[in-house]
Amino acid sequence: MQKMIRRSYLVDLSFLVVGFLVFNFATPIASAQNFFSKILGGQTTDQYPSVGIVGSVEGGGFCTGTLISPTDVLTAAHCAEVIESSDSGTFEVGGQVYLTSAIFIHPDFNSRTLDNDIAILRLSEPVIDIEPSPIFRGTPLVGDVLFIVGFGGGGTAEDGNDGTFGIQRVGMTTIDSVSDSIIEWLFDDPDEANTASGDSGGPGFLFVDEVESVASITSGGSVFDSTLGDVAFNTRVDAFASWIDETLLAVVPSGPTTDPGPTTDPDPTTDPDPTTDPDPTTDPDPTTDPDPEAEPDETPTDMVASCENYLSKPFPLLSFLIDLLTALLESLMGSGSPTAA
């Protein structure tokens, strides 16, 4: 048992080390997983009432989303996957916070590459005083001017993200590249805007017949603090229009979707032979049972949260090294003699 506990602890520690290195020293390809991306160089605004703050009951707000029906919010899959359960998501819009009743993440979403980075949050009650934004169904083109909106940090092109969150900002940028499901731009002009931490899931609007339609969803970029030289990328909404339409029509069972309900439990009084039920206190093969004290390995989502926590501190590297040394000492002291393992 002691060996199992120590092994699980070291696995968790290795995830922490790898996660910290990825967030600080990864190549541009890996760092393109700029989770929780801001509007850098934008202006504060209140002209986008359908755009709100995505979050959770446990963690508060951390991303951006757009109301596309009275009960549905379009956002990024990498934001939705952080929410612990289908009924614990939140969407703050119009000065009111709404809870979710279901979360739909695209089935082909890849959290490593951010492919198919799109999700829909179903609200538990409709938003009745705000008009939803239409989605863009045409094809975005190189040279189109994109209006990016989000609640992430502000800042300058030279200094990068200032770390603020919760203020709606809007900025303009020009699309430089269009692929099957992604649009990109190079942030090389300080007079333009860029997305950054907190803007993830937010909309990129294009004008269609004098109406602003949601053409993209903020996904990430190649530079962590979103300064000049960043290659930002958004998920194309038109590429997933059919999935969006199908999802909006999806019927969700009432109550938490993960709870089968008490009616599925068998009636204990109808058990024909209760003596045949195995004794829960006995284990036919205790060596194969995982140690209940051992924590499960960290998921990529847990790793992201741990790294975001270190990066929010004044001296992230120093804080990380102190925690690392403390963890190693605790591991060595708890291991006992080598023969105990």
UniProtKB/TrEMBL annotation:
Residues 268-300 have a biased composition (Acidic residues). It comes from the Bacteria. Residues 251-304 are annotated as: Disordered. SMART domains: Tryp_SPc. PROSITE patterns: TRYPSIN_DOM, TRYPSIN_HIS. Residues 39-249 form the Peptidase S1 domain. This is Trypsin. It comes from Rubripirellula tenax.
